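Researcher: Quick test of sequence recovery. Tokens follow.
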């Protein structure tokens, strides 16, 4: 096709794939939860909470690397017509309601660390809203996209049925209302229902990626930091109009875009290989800027992971013998914290094991998927340190059994979470001990 710089097309498609990848990962979840009523993960549409007071188990597959310390509360908001108000009760435990934009960047946080444990009402406003903050609202979270989501976490204090029911009662006090319902004002005119692209797993990898991205960009005003990539995508027909049609592309242009998709994927995979902690990959737009590659690492490593000041995540991609990833088929492992190396966060810590490549919890005979400072019966070493035993078969000895984190008979990863980490963790002074091959 005369006049088309196919190298430029390829480069734009590669950058566009990296830029849009977190949006499509987010859409995968949003489509199941807020758009498709036939999906068992459906929360009821936009503007409603769906709570899960039980701890996560292997059958929970909404997101990768789930945790079972803080059961989830999901919601999705459409901010086109008017803002929404989230109301929370008095709290006696750690919780956080983190609201995120379409590209998974955080809008802001309502929770124990940021807004305290008292009751309050908080406004979630879209990018085009410039109204007056109503009386009674304790704060405003201003989104950059018209659609936002929230994966809320509330601490489960124990595994007894009474603990679960207590948590359920707290979650049910989280309340969502349109601003007009909160203030008693007139209800604004309704906005048209979008024609939502049906999610297919192939949408994240083939040329249809740009069809879905074109639709999503219609809810995402151009920001100064992304103006260049948005203009170059628009030149390829991905302009937020929702009309991009791969069938209309010239064969050589389509081929160049498909090559760009592959190049973008390779770029992200290479970047992910060197990311071992959550530092710098989750946060607000002010914290992350427009580093699309970093945002993509976060979306793949742990979609909707919290920023380090809220919850620090670390893990092991290689064991002490250089095996990448760690593999419990025929190997036993230990993780040893010395007495002065024990995690000491403001709230609590845990270590959770996931099978690979799915990055989901794995069935085991004792129904233990994580271990930490709230685990009943945990046994410390005589010198005050702590040794965890990560292996497939139940270990011998009472201390080893008490401190056992069951692993699959194959590859796995372990992620440690600290809620409210201390300064030494955030500045890198504190370091994870090795995942040591036993024997």
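Model:
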């Amino acid at each position: 096709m005369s006049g088309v710089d196919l190298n430029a097309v390829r480069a734009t498609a590669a950058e566009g794939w990296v830029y849009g990848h977190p949006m499509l990962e987010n859409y995968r979840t949003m489509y199941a939860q807020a758009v498709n009523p036939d999906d068992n993960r459906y929360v009821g549409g936009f503007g409603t909470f769906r709570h899960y007071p039980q701890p996560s188990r292997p059958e929970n597959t909404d997101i990768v690397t789930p945790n079972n310390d803080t059961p989830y509360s999901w919601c999705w908001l459409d901010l086109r017509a008017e803002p929404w108000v989230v109301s929370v009760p008095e709290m006696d435990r750690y919780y956080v309601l983190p609201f995120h934009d379409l590209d998974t960047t955080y809008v802001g946080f309502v929770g124990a660390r940021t807004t305290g444990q008292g009751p309050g009402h908080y406004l979630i406003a879209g990018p085009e809203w410039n109204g007056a903050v109503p009386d009674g609202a304790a704060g405003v979270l201003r989104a950059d996209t018209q659609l936002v989501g929230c994966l809320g976490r509330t601490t489960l204090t124990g595994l007894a049925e009474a603990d679960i029911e207590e948590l359920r009662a707290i979650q049910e006090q989280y309340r969502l209302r349109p601003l007009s319902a909160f203030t008693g004002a007139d209800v604004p005119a309704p906005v048209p229902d979008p024609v939502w692209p049906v999610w297919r797993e192939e949408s994240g990898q083939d040329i249809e990626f740009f069809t879905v991205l074109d639709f999503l960009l219609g809810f995402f005003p151009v920001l100064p930091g992304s103006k260049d990539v948005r203009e170059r995508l628009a030149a390829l027909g991905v302009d937020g109009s929702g009309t991009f049609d791969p069938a209309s592309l010239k064969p050589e242009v389509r081929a160049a875009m498909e090559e760009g998709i592959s190049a973008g994927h390779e770029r992200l995979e290479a970047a992910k290989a060197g990311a071992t902690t959550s530092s710098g990959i989750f946060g607000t737009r002010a914290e992350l800027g427009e580093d699309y590659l970093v945002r993509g690492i976060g979306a793949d490593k742990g979609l909707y992971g919290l920023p380090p000041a809220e919850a620090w995540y670390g893990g092991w991609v290689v064991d002490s013998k250089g095996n990448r990833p760690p593999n419990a088929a025929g190997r036993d492992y230990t993780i040893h914290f010395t007495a002065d190396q024990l995690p000491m966060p403001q709230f609590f810590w845990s270590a959770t094991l996931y099978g690979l490549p799915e990055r989901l919890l794995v069935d085991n005979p004792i129904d233990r998927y994580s271990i930490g400072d709230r685990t009943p019966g945990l046994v410390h070493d005589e010198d005050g340190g702590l040794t965890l035993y990560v292996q497939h078969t139940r270990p011998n000895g009472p201390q080893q059994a008490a401190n056992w984190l069951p692993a699959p008979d194959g590859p796995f990863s372990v992620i440690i979470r600290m809620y409210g980490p201390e300064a030494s963790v955030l500045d890198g002074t504190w370091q994870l001990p090795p995942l040591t091959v036993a024997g």
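The two ends are 64 Å apart (CA to CA).
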